[in-house]
Design brief:
Layout: H1 2-34, E1 39-41, H2 44-53, E2 59-63, E3 85-86, H3 90-94, E4 100-104, H4 109-117, E5 122-125, H5 131-144, H6 148-168, E6 174-179, H7 189-197, E7 200-202, H8 217-223, E8 227-231, E9 258-262, H9 275-297
Parallel strand pairs: 1-2, 1-4, 2-3, 4-5, 6-7, 6-8, 8-9
């Protein structure tokens, strides 16, 4: 009986030692794969995150949009030289031998399905519809990409920028219209959040946009918003789409509306970098308010 007990105790000790060893092996293995070493991003809005969170040597590829200059649609276009940029297809992605493919939810469904069928790890990134969503998404990506510190640093920088803008925002809010190529004026929830932080309110909804989200020049002139922001670069009449922004009739707003050109690239994809647009909104809102005061005195 004593012998049996002794043998049982020895077996238990061996089992315990084996279990601890397995646990340590699992921990070490998990730690080693926590940060992917060969990341492919397939979409502009994931490019923006991957470039900022993943070490350059571990980025296997970004989408072609990251460095596209016809036109520039990325906030990192001047920084991605030397990084492979692809037009994502199943073959192209597989040839890069990724250990993680980062995709935006609901984009490229065929590629997504093929990668899953081939058991290629895919990380789906949700679209952010608020500043709170941006915080959640950034923290999630920091966790999945092994970049918690970098993600937290991005959010801390965003918080400081927004707090600075919020502290200087004046009231009442300035009615502002974002007027983009082809006369598009639709704004997403993040843009509206940032406008509110900066002391602006979106004037578009009250101007009855068309079903496609555009507003004719005549309607803009009739409404005469306090602030008219043209998305793009002044004088860049390089496509039919931007001609409406240069329409001569808009000159009739001079003296009534403060008009300015501004890069809205930080708004193309919602992320911590979008906070830069709040500073732009704040500066332009201040100038529009000054014009309104001059009008009131006259």
């Amino acid at each position: 009986m004593v012998g049996n007990v002794t043998r049982c105790k020895c077996a238990l000790r061996r089992f315990a030692g084996f279990s601890i060893a397995c646990a340590l092996l699992f921990f070490c293995t998990s730690a080693s794969v926590a940060a992917p070493q060969h990341v492919v991003s397939t979409f502009l809005c994931t490019d923006e995150y991957v470039f900022r969170l993943v070490p350059r040597e571990h980025i296997a590829a970004l989408s072609f949009e990251a460095g596209d200059r016809h036109p520039v649609v990325s906030t990192i276009a001047d920084k991605v030289g030397g990084i492979v940029q692809i037009r994502p297809s199943t073959e192209t992605v597989l040839n890069l031998h990724p250990d993680l493919v980062v995709m935006y939810e609901s984009t490229m469904p065929r590629l997504h399905a093929n990668l899953l069928a081939l058991r290629v790890p895919v990380l789906d990134v949700p679209w952010s519809n608020s500043i709170a969503d941006i915080q959640k998404t950034t923290l999630m990506l920091g966790e999945k990409l092994g970049a918690k510190d970098e993600a937290q640093a991005m959010l801390s920088e965003m918080d400081v920028k927004l707090a600075t803008v919020r502290a200087s925002a004046q009231r009442p809010a300035v009615h502002a219209l974002l007027y983009e190529p082809n006369g598009y004026t639709s704004t997403d929830p993040v843009t509206q959040d940032l406008m509110a932080v900066a002391g602006l309110v979106d004037a578009a909804p009250g101007m009855r946009p068309t079903r496609s989200g555009t507003i004719p020049v005549e309607a803009v002139i009739a409404a005469a918003p306090e602030l008219l922001i043209f998305g793009g670069a002044r004088g860049a009449e390089d496509s039919h789409a931007v001609l409406v922004q240069h329409h001569p009739a808009l000159r009739s707003l001079e003296g009534r509306t403060y008009s300015a050109w501004a890069s809205l690239l930080p708004l193309s994809c919602p992320g911590p970098w979008s906070a830069d647009a709040a500073k732009t909104f704040s500066d332009l809102g201040r100038k529009a308010r000054a014009l309104a005061k001059r009008q009131a005195r006259n």
